[in-house]
Amino acid sequence: MKRTPLENKLTEMVEPVVADLGFDLVLISVIGEGGTKTVQILAQNPQTRNLGVEDAANISRAVSALLDVEDPIAGQYRLEVSSPGIDRPLVKLQDFEHYTGYEAKLERHTPAENGQKRFRGIIKGLQDNNILVETDTGRVEIPFADLAKAKLVLTDELIKAAASK
């Protein structure tokens, strides 16, 4: 997935801090132009794939201290740390392996041969760095390198799976 240069820089800085606290960094997004930006950090406990309130507060304190020292963001910003949630973004190849069998929305950077950029369907796994998705119109392969964004769809099956963990 393509990220802005600032998001890439923040990820490189923040990921080791989050890992030292025992968590996985899922995604960093910077939202807003000029004025006050919002830096959203999604992190998870590697065992539960979730994040508690106290854990989010610990990550927020550690990352805030790092950003105060390094000062990578011009101007004011607001820092938000949270769990990726049940209908989480899918950002790494292993996310598509882990959530095989669940419904997702995916968007490509460039259109497929038929001109389509957005897809919704059941994740069927990976093949040669391509994400396999079964849609209403058939199976599609989306190159991971061409993935603009992907997110799980909140379904009864996903809720049941999350509740059983």
Can you tell me about this structure?
The protein is globular. The two termini are 28 Å apart. Helix content is 29%, strand content 34%. The chain contains four helices and eight strands, in the order αββαβαβββββα. A five-stranded antiparallel beta sheet has the order 7-6-5-4-8. It has two domains: 5-82, GMP Synthetase, Chain A, domain 3, CATH 3.30.300.70; 93-163, Roll (SH3 type barrels). Helix 1 crosses helix 2 (53-70).
Low-confidence stretches: none
CATH class group of the largest domain: Alpha Beta
Mean pLDDT comes to 93
Q: What is the β-strand count?
A: 8
Largest sheet: 5 strands, antiparallel
The CATH topology of the largest domain comes to GMP Synthetase, Chain A, domain 3
Rg of Cα set: 17 Å
The helix content is: 25-40%
Number of domains: 2
The end-to-end distance, rounded to whole angstroms, is 28 Å
Helix- and strand-based class? Answer: alpha+beta
The 3D shape can be described as globular
Strand/helix succession = HEEHEHEEEEEH
Count the DSSP helices. 4
CATH architecture of the largest domain: 2-Layer Sandwich
In the sheet with the most strands, the strands line up as 7-6-5-4-8
Explain the layout of strands and helices.
Elements: H1 5-20, E1 24-31, E2 37-44, H2 53-70, E3 77-82, H3 93-98, E4 103-108, E5 118-127, E6 130-135, E7 138-143, E8 147-152, H4 156-163
Parallel strand pairs: 2-3
Antiparallel strand pairs: 1-2, 4-5, 4-8, 5-6, 6-7
Helix pairs in contact: 1-2
